Amino acid sequence: MEHLHRNNLYDVKDRVALVTGGGTGIGLMITETLVKNGAKVYIGSRRDDKVQQVARETPGHIVPAGITGPSSPFFNDESAPENKSAAPLGTALFENEKVEEWQGLYGNNVASIFFVTTAFLGLLAKGSEQRGPWSACVINISSVSGQIRISQAKWAYNSSKSANIHLTKMFATEFALKNIQSDHTLGKEDVNKAAQGLQPVPFARSGNDIDMGGITLFLSSPAGYYVHGQVITIDGGFGAVQPSSS
């Protein structure tokens, strides 16, 4: 029964994670949670100053990874043992796609997830081979704005977040053949950002690091290995009082 002890059930010690946007906001909450629990975290970000600040101020193994994708400096880090002999699975499955075909907001909220995720498929597949099926996982972060039917005067943003959610479901179907877990977490970080026409958050507070850190540990540890293709909403009941597509 030792495998059911909390130290084993939620164990992410010595796991290797890439957190895009891991220097601020929800990404930072996830970075701090994983590092605090013994994981090695690469932070992918365009804001190098924020990443360097996090690396200085947060005890643990944090590595700045720059802008992530097929040409990321991460893949040229020969000192990283997790890079050794990683099969080019992403190239094999998605080589016909071109990032130039994705534009504007959909580029930021949908294409970025597609290209970053597929760039790391080789490493993820190798991770599942080493630790056992479904131990490697992709956790995409979206927004409750992708589930509600009120536009909030943000037609492109909200619809792109909805596309973001569906993309993860498509990944789940493809990745099932490679023993890679794919799930989606929807966060609502700021209770005060509700636009006109929306009901307030029933819990009357913003989401915090405990909310996001807890679900991250669950999905990335043995406790979450049997969860696949799911959309998990962390919103303090916000979606329960809005017209929703889910």
UniProtKB/TrEMBL annotation:
EC?
Answer: 1.1.1.69
Q: Does the keyword NAD apply?
A: no
Tree of life domain = Eukaryota
Gene3D superfamilies reported in the protein's UniProt record: NAD(P)-binding Rossmann-like Domain
Q: Which InterPro entries match?
A: NAD(P)-bd_dom_sf, SDR_fam, Sec_Metab_Biosynth_SDR
Give the keywords, sorted.
NADP, Oxidoreductase
Pfam families assigned to the protein according to its UniProt record, in alphabetical order:
adh_short, adh_short_C2
Q: Which GO terms describe its molecular function?
A: gluconate 5-dehydrogenase activity
Entry annotated with the keyword Membrane: no
Give the similarity note: Belongs to the short-chain dehydrogenases/reductases (SDR) family.
Q: Which PANTHER family match?
A: 7-ALPHA-HYDROXYSTEROID DEHYDROGENASE, SHORT CHAIN DEHYDROGENASE_REDUCTASE FAMILY (AFU_ORTHOLOGUE AFUA_7G04540)
Protein name as annotated: Short-chain dehydrogenase
